Amino acid sequence: MASHRFVHLVESELIKLTNWKEINHVLEQAFVSVSNKDKSSGQPYSSQPARSFVHVGDAGALLCMPAFLGNISVKSDSSQSNPAGPAARTSSLACKLITSFKDNPSRNPSLPDIIGNIFLFDETTGQLQATLEANYLTGLRTAAASIVATEQVFLPRIADKSKLVLGIIGTGVQGEFHAMGFMKTHKFVQVKLWNRTKARSEQLKTKLTQLAPNSCNPDVNISVHDSPEECCTNCDIIVTATSSSVPIVFKRFLKQNVHINAIGSGLQHHTELAQDIYDECSVFIDYWNGAKAELATLKSTIVGEVGEVVLKQKVVPSSGITVFQSLGMAVEDAAIGKLFYSKYMEQLNKGH
Ligand SMILES: NC(=O)C1=CN([C@@H]2O[C@H](COP(=O)(O)OP(=O)(O)OC[C@H]3O[C@@H](n4cnc5c(N)ncnc54)[C@H](O)[C@@H]3O)[C@@H](O)[C@H]2O)C=CC1
Ligand SMILES: O=C(O)C1=NCCCC1
């Protein structure tokens, strides 16, 4: 076989290509693709098995996440050269290989909890087109999944969207991406931060203060809190992004009308929130296949997939506590991998 070249996109290149609106646009299509059972509907569709794990004792795991995503547009209608026309459609064939080792951050020197790469293939020939460093992309796509879930499940029930308060529980990598993504795409009057090690929240506050002038509210108040309870008080939207194996958010901390994006705690998934929350809330998920395998021990009411909400197959509650229980799925990586590869190739062809 003739040798074949592929590109390798590193984090510094990916940072330059980042546009949150485009990322949210492809993530919404990833959600739709898993809920759409009719390939001829004109909507995105996909094929993705439940991901496979190799456990390394109790220390960590290697995850293999393959997916095919069909009929997506990597550009939103408003960003293409002819905004009046339909956005061009493409597909994505990809596999993310990722490791999750929970003790990595406390090593000396510290290492990320999550380390991964996305392998992107030509969907007509199967040839490897690109490898993309996936730590940064996992941060972006997981935050974008929470943003889309919040827009679909929670924001329709909020009449006045100009006074929202965001709480971030856990200001590690994911907490940071979530704070940045939400501030870039939605207006908040306050962003509240809590982390087990307070210094880390203070560091994030400094970064977010620098970002604020380029966010949806340059006057946003960013505050650091001493406890999860103080941080959650008065929040409309909460993100939990920790590796805690015991509950850190309880119902008594919450407003009556609140949305939580529960994204942390690795492969145990639902340990960050107390059972009294799960007893009362409506849970939305990313995909049933994954939930059957990875949320088998969750005792709560799962209403449906976020994609089912977008497709109007499921109705969202008009008040109360909603939870987006984020597992993370391969089509999200296939979507963001294709978006960044396309943008990179476009710039290369323009001679940048
Ligand atoms: N749902 C999804 O798609 C994804 C979920 N994750 C999960 O999100 C979580 C955070 O990941 P990263 O931000 O990348 O990790 P990180 O290592 O950057 O941050 C971990 C955070 O958890 C906190 N933490 C650890 N143990 C704790 C405890 N017992 N109590 C309270 N806080 C504790 C740390 O202070 C830190 O803020 C992990 O559980 C990871 O597996 C990560 C990527 C995707
Ligand atoms: O989807 C992902 O990527 C991950 N999800 C759960 C924790 C590890 C990474």
The proportion of residues forming helix, as a percent range, comes to: 25-40%
What sequence of helices (H) and strands (E) makes up the elements? EHHEEEEEEHEHEHEHEEHEHEHEH
Query: How many structural domains are formed by the residues?
Result: 2
How do the strands line up in the largest sheet? 10-9-8-11-12-15-13-14
Task: Briefly note the structural class of the backbone.
Answer: alpha/beta
Give the low-confidence spans: none
- Please state the CA-atom Rg, rounded to the nearest Å: 20 Å
The biggest beta sheet reads: 8 strands, parallel
CATH homolog superfamily of the largest domain: NAD(P)-binding Rossmann-like Domain
Structure annotation, total helices = 10
Bound molecules: 1,4-dihydronicotinamide adenine dinucleotide, ligand LZCNNONV
Tell me the overall shape. globular
In words, what does this structure look like?
This protein has helices spanning 11-16, 20-35, 134-153, 173-185, 198-211, 228-232, 275-280, 288-294, 306-310, 330-349; strands at 7-9, 45-47, 52-56, 60-72, 90-101, 114-121, 128-133, 164-169, 188-194, 221-224, 237-240, 258-262, 282-285, 301-305, 321-325. By secondary structure, the chain is an alpha/beta fold. It folds into two domains: 7-78 and 86-138 and 331-351, ornithine cyclodeaminase, domain 1 (2-Layer Sandwich); 149-329, NAD(P)-binding Rossmann-like Domain (Rossmann fold, 3-Layer(aba) Sandwich). The longest helix has 20 residues, at 134-153. The two termini are 32 Å apart. 1,4-dihydronicotinamide adenine dinucleotide binds at residues 100, 105, 113-114, 138, 142, 170-175, 195-197, 241-244, 248, 263-266, 326-328. One of its GO terms (molecular function) is pyrroline-2-carboxylate reductase activity.
